[in-house]
Amino acid sequence: MSHIFDALQRSDADQTGAEKAAESTATELLERAERQATSQWKSEADSGDIAPDGAEPELLSGGHSVLSDRSREDFQTGNASQAAERAKIFSEFQTLAVSPSAQSRLVCLLDKESSAAEAFRLLRLRIRHLRKERPLKKIVVTSTVPQEGKSFAAANLACALGSASQHKTLLIEGDVRRPSLSQLFGVGETSGICECMESDRALSESIYHLAEAGIWLLPAGTTSGDPLETIQSAKLPALLQQMTAWFDWIIIDCPPVLPLADTSAWARLADGILLVARRDVTEKKKLQRGLEALEPSKLIGALLNASDGAFERDYYYYHRSSKDSGQSDGSAD
After folding, report:
1. Residue 241 per-residue DSSP state
2. Alpha helix ranges (H) inside the chain
């Protein structure tokens, strides 16, 4: 896997010395945060607190599995029952037509051959590799302040994951104060998670299949009260647990960390946090405060949104694995 944030060090001919220094400072700040997170993951893995996704049953002497034949049969029966239940649930979801505008920047849907879309496919690959090291299904995408591109990143990451395999991907519009995903996909205003938490509306009535994008969407909906109280509802953990049983990936577009407290409610329930920063927008002091507000062990990486009109330089994602040797990752998706 490539060195963390190595592409941030690439110089642009039109950058001034001050711009290079500011970029380097932000890079060092994010790199320190990821080193801290990596160290904590490794400590947890060494202590046995983390079981890698897809771990094999322990073998006894002679090569016999800990699972008895009867246990294996019960396991297979349980899986079949869960699959049938899951299929029934998915048949109840409504389908919405996607009508994104050219300005939506849904590159993984509208411009799949672009280098920006390729960058999100690389992000997908690295997140899937990361899941081999630690449990990772529910991912919060946030930023330190508004206008850094976190909704754009969440939408494209979800589309990239949804197009990769048979894994079912859910995109949650967790920013109920300023929802933008429904507008990005051009699906109009619909009921969503607010109605589920404020009334007896079923989840199956508020999750929509976006067939063209290959994902499912849970919109924000409309809250009748204080957004923070809605997000901190005692119903949220149970609802998220139910969605975790249905979907293989859950991407949550959250409000910025500063100055709101909404993100903490989602972050407590998530497996990992992806932080979005934007060149020439994200300030060092605010970035530092944002990092301090996040739980270090849940920070899985940072995405630099450096949009300047040139797709080939737009987006970079970096993650340092606990097994990172500094070599490039040649695995195929």
Report:
1. H
2. 17-47, 69-92, 107-110, 115-130, 150-162, 181-185, 193-198, 227-231, 235-246, 262-269, 284-293
| Torsion on CA atoms 141, 144, 255, 215, rounded to nearest 10 | -20
pLDDT at 76: 53
Beta bridge partners of 6: none
Q: What pLDDT shows up at residue 80?
A: 72
Which residue shows structure tokens 């390729």?
118
Closest CA to 165 of 135, 138, 127: 127
For residue 173, give the 3-state DSSP assignment.
Answer: strand
Burial 95-107 (b: 16+ CB within 10 A, else e): ebebebeeebbbb
Is residue 314 very low, low, confident or very high in pLDDT (cuts 50, 70, 90)?
A: very low
Nearest to 271 by CA among 83, 47, 41, 82: 41
Residue 95, classed as helix, strand or coil, is strand
Phi, psi of 157 (to 5 degrees): -65, -45
Reduced to 3 states, what is the DSSP secondary structure of residue 5?
Answer: coil
Q: What is the rounded distance in angstroms from the CA atom of residue 253 to the CA atom of residue 260?
A: 14
Q: Please, what is the angle between helix 115-130 and helix 150-162, to 10°?
A: 70
Which whole-number Å values give the CA distances from 106 to 99, 100, 125, 217, in the listed order? 11, 8, 18, 15
* DSSP letter (8 states) at residue 147: S
Rounded Cα gap, residues 301 and 229, in angstroms = 29
Contacts of 99 (CB under 8 A, 6+ apart): 185, 186, 187
